[in-house]
């Protein structure tokens, strides 16, 4: 039986005349399937039954409606774009209503799918011209659908960009009352009069979204009774279910859950009636019932129950490709994040899993780029709070820009750039942070807004994840139309000068707006801005609006300071007037104005902080906290994370007030207040998952614990310490131990958090990666964290336990050169021997392969798609640390602090006892013993399989600086360098000798000593200090390292060279040209002789060019460089090696020893970008080549760190300028030992062959001989350096200048093959 018109469910039936009967039946069937959510079956009908009429407009429209209803914006855009483009230029066709409908649909989705606004605006304006004078009684069904698309397109444009066109809201044209969107109501009335009830019900879907929330119930009461006029039962029941479902949702928005529950029941009854219709298939009600279940999730108050229900609902929604699966996923993600804030790691994992699904759905299924970014915003905010994944989030944003260069939606772009700014600031890239903030402001000026556009309620949004809407009362002031979290307020948080201008301009605009509406008097305005009689006269003369603009043109900071901070003090009278006025706002502006008042206080706090007015600053914080605590619910929820920052800010104010007193007795009340506040703040930070802030708060808590310990050490009872810790029944020592435990727990948590943040602070290698990590470490004051922990450990009143000594040693390893150590492992290859062991292990091999597979997936993925993969890889690497072999691999990559268990392998390789020696400066803290008032230095020694030792030295911490100043600074005015005087050595031992005194009992003669100095000690020749009445270098082989973590990296490079048997290919270079032969003859001859001994061609004179040198260095593994060096104390990255000047001087002209000719240079900055052969050794026979700039946290910078970073395993350099002949003598003696060791090892190998000769057949003997000749020999560079230094002063009669300047850095064992040792002479 053919369908009758009364049975039609389509809304474009006037176009059916282009089809015949069977085609209409197929089309109607597809429309019904779409209406009940059976989208795939609906699409099958178009493919199987309507293909021959696929270009007919009504067929195009209805197929497009399927894509639209299931939010397939990408498919919809592509589906309509081709037929519309094919008809470009055919104005007659495109002017028809059906083609206008398709054009509007494309314009609507282009905003969401491509983020382009202009095409949508063009289509809106084209439609306005078409319909502005079109009476509602003349609208056909197609016109009605055009209006529906027009309104949605208008909404998308207004949300995405600035679009001011008041006439746009007069479509359809109102019949009498010209109010925004009145035409929708007029059109619905007209449709009902004409019996077009289904069309009226369809139009109602957009009309209701343009209606204020509290007016909606009346609208529903008008439309629902009219549904009885629909003749088709199934259409009537479906329309009623639709409307009651929407009503249920709207009632939930206004928090009337009782009424919402009633409507849900009525919706179910309508669906039951639908199912009883014989023309309805089984299951046609399921899509609506699933939607109803989603609405009912808002009725659940318990977060875990809500989360579980959402997860359960996701399965059937996903199975049906339900359009609301995105909403359900979003809800589940938000609830998971909220539960995770209570400490549930399982729900945090679920949050990331669900977010990945949501991201995939938005990008690849819905292809909705606006929603993609909107949903990503929550994850980016979480990144800002935890700081660890900042680089991953930056990669996502930058990847988004690369993948979608056409995306230009201003609102979204402003938000993305603002997030970029915060993330760059998190990793301390202040330049790019400011650049991103400027871009955000540029986009923000063109951004859209939601006032009077998107009728939603913020209270419901905030309640959505934390419980049911019933938990909070509906407040119309919280409607989205009344408040937008505008970027203007957010900018106040990042830029005080900019924020001052934003706040002042807002106050000026509000004041003059209210004055124009007679809401405030002229006296109020003059009081707000401190206007005098002359100002008042100007305003009357020129008019209020002109005076408003004049006020806004004046420097905002000057006005703010003059009006609200007169004389550097806050004006409470003016603030009270401002607060009183803003607390009585016009309807619909409450939240915006109260938030503006909060930003006012935030800005004034910033000014007071700069003025260091602690008491006034504290008062302002109290005012801010009081204001926020009295906020309406939505504003309070939105601003609650900031509250804890203000609380800890107040704690810091009290702590700084205490420091200003300089006395525990006088300032103790400030300590007590700071302690209570920081505990409150840390608890709040944990609840809101602000992990970085937790770390900062915990460190302050540990510092306060130290103060309590100092207080207890002064007093005889806990009551005198404020009674805030422990019990009076505990002894002083027991209380101190408890305080120490609590403080250590806090500060070690700080260290764990900051370590994770620093590891992810940069993915760059080279000097950029080091500098970026150093910025983060400086910002976090990571060195302070370690110092506080060490101070706590050393505060124990009893003997230090093995556990305490081990922990001090581990903390000191974390302190030194952490940025260099963490960056150096990023590009270094793993030793093949270690990798082979891993692959051979049944436990480790598969885990290692999984890591490689994950890395390959990351490398193959687009930048935007790597975030979740990188997080998976991070989690996998943590699991890898459970296996010893894999932990070695990860430790090398991450530059983790050196573990004493690793010393076994190093000592075994060296064949000698090895002792690690560390010096560490402990800064002063309140009531250190008087002789330690400037802090003190501790000496740590560590042997394999033994607990480290700790000695507190009585050396003056400034002794090294005094000796350096006396020795190096004063020598410029003397004929003979101070180092050339014998008194320099005596002075050195008198001032600094106690630095090494404990080594007499902590080490034995012949031990290899690995010295790791601190601060100014890096500039001292520690090996020249006396132990057992002679220089340390005579007693022990000595080498230096900037941190023992770098020792691991250097050893790894040497092992790599041994495993792959990299050839030496010696490079011997002279940076001294022939024109200086008379002055530097010894050095030039030394270069030629050393090259001959190493079987190499020297780079000298014409061959010693920078290009030739750089071409050679990547193929060499032994470098001997005899040249000049330029040290720049103000910029260690300009520390450079010089190349020779080849131009001959004029005849008979004298050649100065140190001429001023500009030479080509190779700087440390450039060397960081060079990739040397792994495991090389570099001799730098150059003045002050071993100088470094030692920054906070013992972060070294200079030539030696650059060379070690680039792949070398060891360097020899000099601490000060040396004479040419001294460099020559050192070099000859050094290579005597180097070659002798290689030959000695070779002879040992040959003896092994002779011993085997009688036992093996000849063929096996020959094979064994070749194997041994190819095998690796290890040369002890430390021994070679020791012998070379001793050869310069055999009788101990020479001054320091002649012998003590040479130092070895890195790993001292150097591999050569038997074949190579034969070539040495």
Question: Can you walk through the features of this model?
Answer:
The protein is of the alpha/beta class and 1321 residues long. Helix content is 60%, strand content 6%. It is built from 58 helices and 19 strands. The strands form 6 sheets. It has a 5-stranded mixed sheet with strand order 3-2-1-4-7. A 5-stranded mixed sheet has the order 8-9-13-16-18, with helices on both faces. It has a 3-stranded antiparallel sheet with strand order 10-11-12. Strand 14 (1189-1191) and strand 15 form a beta hairpin. Helix 13 (257-276) packs antiparallel against helix 14, helix 30 (590-611) runs antiparallel to helix 31 and helix 54 (1220-1253) packs across helix 56 (1277-1288). The longest helix is centred in the last third of the chain and has 34 residues, at 1220-1253.
Mean pLDDT: 87
Multimerization state = single chain
Rg for CA atoms: 39 Å
Structural class, please? alpha/beta
Low-pLDDT segments: 450-469, 717-724, 1149-1154, 1244-1266
Helix fraction, binned, reads 55-70%
Q: What portion of residues belong to β-strands?
A: 5-15%
The number of helices is 58
Protein name: CHAT domain-containing protein
InterPro entries: CHAT_dom (IPR024983)
Pfam family, one: CHAT
Domain CHAT: 988-1306
Features of the shown structure:
CHAT domain-containing protein, CHAT_dom, alpha/beta, single chain, 1321 residues, five-stranded mixed β-sheet, 58 helices
């Amino acid at each position: 039986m053919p369908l009758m018109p009364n049975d039609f469910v389509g809304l474009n039936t006037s176009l059916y005349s282009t089809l015949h009967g069977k085609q209409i039946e197929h089309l109607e069937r597809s429309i019904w399937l779409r209406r009940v959510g059976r989208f795939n079956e609906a699409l099958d009908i178009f493919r199987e039954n309507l293909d021959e009429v696929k270009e007919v407009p009504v067929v195009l429209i209805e197929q497009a409606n399927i894509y639209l209803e299931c939010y397939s914006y990408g498919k919809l855009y592509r589906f309509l774009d081709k037929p519309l483009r094919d008809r470009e230029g055919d104005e007659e066709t495109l002017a028809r209503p059906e083609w206008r409908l398709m054009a509007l649909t494309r314009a609507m989705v282009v905003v969401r799918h491509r983020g382009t606004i202009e095409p949508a605006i063009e289509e809106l304006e084209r439609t306005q011209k078409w319909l502005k004078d079109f009476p509602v009684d003349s609208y056909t069904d197609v016109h009605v659908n055009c209006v529906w698309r027009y309104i949605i397109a208008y909404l998308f444009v207004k949300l995405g960009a600035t679009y001011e066109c008041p006439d746009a809201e007069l479509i359809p044209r109102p019949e009498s009352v010209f109010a925004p969107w009145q035409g929708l109501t007029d059109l619905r009335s007209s449709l009902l009069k004409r019996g077009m009830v289904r069309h009226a019900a369809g139009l109602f879907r957009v009309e209701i979204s343009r209606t204020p929330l509290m007016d909606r119930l009346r609208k529903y009461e008008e439309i629902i009774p009219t549904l009885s006029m629909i003749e088709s039962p199934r259409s009537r029941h479906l329309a009623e279910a639709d409307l009651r479902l929407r009503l249920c949702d709207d009632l939930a928005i206004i928090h009337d859950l009782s009424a919402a529950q009633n409507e849900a029941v009525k919706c179910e009854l309508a669906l039951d009636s639908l199912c009883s219709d014989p023309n309805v298939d089984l299951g046609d009600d399921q899509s609506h019932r699933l939607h109803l279940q989603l609405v009912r999730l808002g009725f659940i108050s318990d977060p875990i129950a809500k989360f579980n229900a959402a997860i359960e609902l996701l399965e059937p929604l996903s199975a049906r490709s339900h359009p609301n699966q995105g909403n359900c996923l979003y809800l589940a993600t938000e609830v998971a994040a909220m539960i995770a804030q209570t400490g549930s790691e399982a729900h945090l994992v679920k949050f990331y899993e669900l977010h990945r699904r949501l991201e995939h759905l938005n990008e690849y299924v819905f292809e909705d780029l606006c929603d993609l970014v909107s949903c990503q915003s929550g994850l980016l905010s979480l990144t800002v709070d935890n700081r660890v994944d900042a680089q991953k989030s930056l990669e996502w944003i930058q990847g988004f820009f690369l993948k979608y260069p056409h995306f230009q939606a201003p609102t979204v772009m402003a938000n993305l750039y603002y997030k970029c700014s915060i993330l760059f600031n998190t990793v301390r890239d202040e330049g790019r942070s400011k650049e991103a903030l400027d871009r955000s402001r540029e986009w923000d000026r063109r951004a859209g807004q939601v006032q009077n556009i998107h009728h939603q309620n913020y209270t419901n949004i905030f309640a959505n994840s934390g419980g049911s809407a019933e938990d909070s009362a509906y407040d119309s002031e919280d409607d989205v139309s009344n408040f937008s979290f505008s970027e203007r307020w957010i900018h106040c948080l990042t830029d005080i000068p900019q924020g001052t201008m934003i706040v002042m301009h807002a106050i000026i605009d509000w004041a003059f707006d209210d004055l124009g509406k007679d809401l405030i008097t002229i006296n109020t305005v003059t009081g707000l801005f401190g206007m005098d009689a002359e100002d008042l006269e100007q305003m009357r003369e020129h008019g209020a609006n002109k005076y408003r603009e004049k006020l806004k043109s004046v420097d905002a900071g000057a006005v703010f300071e003059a009006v609200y901070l007169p004389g550097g003090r806050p004006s409470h009278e003016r603030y009270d007037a401002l607060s009183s006025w803003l607390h009585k706002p016009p309807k619909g502006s409450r939240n915006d104005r109260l938030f503006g008042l909060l930003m006012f206080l935030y800005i004034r706090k910033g000014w007071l902080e700069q003025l260091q007015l602690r008491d006034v600053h504290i008062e302002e914080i109290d005012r801010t906290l009081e204001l926020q605590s009295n906020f309406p619910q939505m504003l309070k929820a939105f601003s609650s994370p900031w509250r804890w920052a203000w609380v800890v800010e107040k704690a810091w104010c009290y702590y700084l007030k205490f420091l200003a007193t300089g006395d525990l007795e006088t300032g103790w009340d400030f300590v007590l207040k700071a302690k209570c506040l920081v505990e409150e703040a840390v608890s709040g930070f944990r609840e809101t998952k602000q992990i970085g802030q937790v770390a900062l708060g915990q460190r302050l808590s540990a510092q306060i614990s130290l103060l309590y310990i100092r207080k207890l050490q002064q007093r005889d009872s806990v009551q005198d310490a404020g009674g805030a810790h422990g019990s009076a029944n505990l002894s002083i020592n027991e209380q101190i131990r408890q305080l120490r435990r609590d403080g250590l727990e806090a500060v070690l948590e700080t260290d764990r958090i900051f370590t994770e943040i620093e590891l992810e602070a940069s993915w760059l290698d080279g000097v950029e990666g080091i500098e970026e990590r150093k910025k983060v470490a400086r910002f976090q004051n990571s060195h302070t964290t370690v110092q506080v922990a060490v101070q706590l450990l050393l505060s124990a009143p009893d003997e230090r336990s093995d556990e305490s000594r081990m922990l001090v040693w581990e903390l000191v390893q974390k302190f030194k050169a952490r940025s260099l150590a963490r960056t150096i492992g990023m590009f270094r290859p793993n030793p093949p021997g270690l990798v082979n062991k891993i692959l051979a292990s049944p436990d480790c091999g598969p885990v290692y392969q999984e890591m490689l597979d994950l890395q390959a997936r990351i490398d193959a993925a687009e930048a935007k798609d790597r975030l979740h993969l990188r997080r998976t890889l991070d989690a996998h690497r943590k699991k890898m640390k459970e296996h010893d072999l894999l932990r070695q691999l990860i430790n090398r990559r991450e530059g983790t602090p050196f573990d004493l268990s690793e010393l076994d392998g190093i000592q075994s390789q060296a064949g000698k006892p090895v002792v690690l020696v560390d010096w560490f400066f402990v800064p002063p803290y309140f009531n250190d013993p008087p002789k330690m008032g400037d802090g003190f230095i501790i000496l740590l020694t560590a042997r394999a399989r033994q607990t480290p030792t700790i000695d507190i030295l009585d050396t003056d911490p400034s002794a090294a600086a005094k000796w350096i100043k006396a020795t190096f600074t004063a020598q410029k005015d003397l004929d003979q360098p101070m180092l050339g005087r014998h008194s320099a050595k005596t002075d050195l031992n008198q001032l600094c000798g106690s630095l090494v005194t404990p080594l007499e009992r902590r080490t034995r003669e012949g031990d290899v000593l690995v010295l790791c100095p601190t601060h100014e000690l890096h500039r001292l020749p520690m090996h020249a200090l006396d132990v057992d009445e002679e220089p340390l270098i005579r007693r022990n082989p000595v080498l230096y390292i900037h941190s023992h973590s770098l020792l691991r990296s250097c050893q790894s490079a040497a092992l790599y060279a041994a495993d792959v048997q990299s050839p030496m290919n010696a490079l011997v270079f002279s940076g001294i040209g022939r024109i200086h032969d008379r002055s530097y003859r010894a050095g030039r001859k030394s270069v030629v002789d050393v090259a001959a001994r190493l079987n190499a061609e020297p780079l000298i004179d014409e061959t010693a060019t920078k290009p030739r040198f750089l071409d050679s260095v990547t193929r060499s593994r032994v470098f001997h460089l005899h040249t000049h060096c330029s040290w720049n104390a103000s910029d260690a990255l300009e520390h450079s090696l010089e190349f020779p000047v080849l131009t001959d001087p004029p005849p008979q002209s004298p050649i100065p020893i140190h001429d001023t000719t500009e030479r080509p240079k190779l700087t440390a900055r450039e060397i960081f970008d060079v990739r040397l052969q792994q495991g090389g050794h570099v001799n730098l026979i150059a003045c002050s080549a071993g100088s470094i700039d030692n920054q906070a946290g013992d972060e070294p910078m200079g030539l030696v760190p650059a060379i070690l970073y680039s792949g070398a395993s060891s360097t020899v350099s000099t601490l000060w300028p040396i004479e040419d002949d001294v460099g020559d003598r050192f070099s000859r003696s050094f290579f005597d030992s180097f070659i002798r060791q290689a030959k000695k090892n070779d002879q040992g190998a040959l003896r092994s062959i002779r011993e085997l000769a009688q036992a093996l057949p000849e063929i096996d003997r020959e094979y064994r001989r070749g194997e041994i000749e190819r095998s690796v020999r290890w040369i002890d560079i430390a021994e070679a350096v020791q012998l070379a230094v001793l050869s310069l002063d055999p009788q101990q009669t020479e001054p320091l200048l002649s012998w003590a300047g040479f130092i070895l850095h890195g790993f001292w064992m150097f591999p050569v093959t038997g074949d190579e040792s034969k070539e040495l002479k």
